[in-house]
Amino acid sequence: MGQDLTIGYDEYIIRFKELIKSLGLNSSIQREYVLKVLFNNEDHLNAEQILSKVRDEHKVSIGMTTVYKILTLLEELKVVKSISIEGSDTKVYELDLYAHHDHIVCLKCSKIIEFVNEKIEELQECIAKENNFILQSHSMILYGLCQNCKTK
Predict the structure, then answer these.
(1) Structural domains counted in the chain
(2) Which of helix, strand or coil describes residue 120?
(3) Residue 95 and residue 12: Cα distance in Å, rounded?
(4) Which of 47, 79, 95, 151 is the most exposed place for a label (fewest CB within 10 A)?
(5) What is the Cβ-side half-sphere exposure of residue 75, based on CA atoms within 13 angstroms?
(6) Per residue in 108-140, pLDDT tens?
(7) Could you tell me the CATH number of the domain that includes residue 53?
């Protein structure tokens, strides 16, 4: 599932700064660097990868604690989504810019594939309705072996 964005980074960061200002928070260049790394990468990155890319691409000194604090804030603001990989303590992150999608994760190599299936979405709505729930959100992660790993 490619990232088909209708917004560029410059416009995105302006909107993000407006959000931060509306919440009474100060703007931070470190937050912007983390967002830029996530914006420019189609892969799901863990905190260590984000830290490394921020340091490499922006030539700044930033610590892991700062990256985790930024990611926590961005998740709370629903700017970033995390995916916990089963059998691992590691989370990977993606910007929450795209239409809802689910994930398939390889248990061996951690490859992540994004997918959308309207039948699954409809079924989830039906299940919620049958149980007198109003569905607010959901996250589905399927685990298995990717083509490369199953042939090894």
Answers:
(1) 2
(2) helix
(3) 11
(4) 151
(5) 14
(6) 888 899 898 999 999 999 999 999 999 888 888
(7) 1.10.10.10
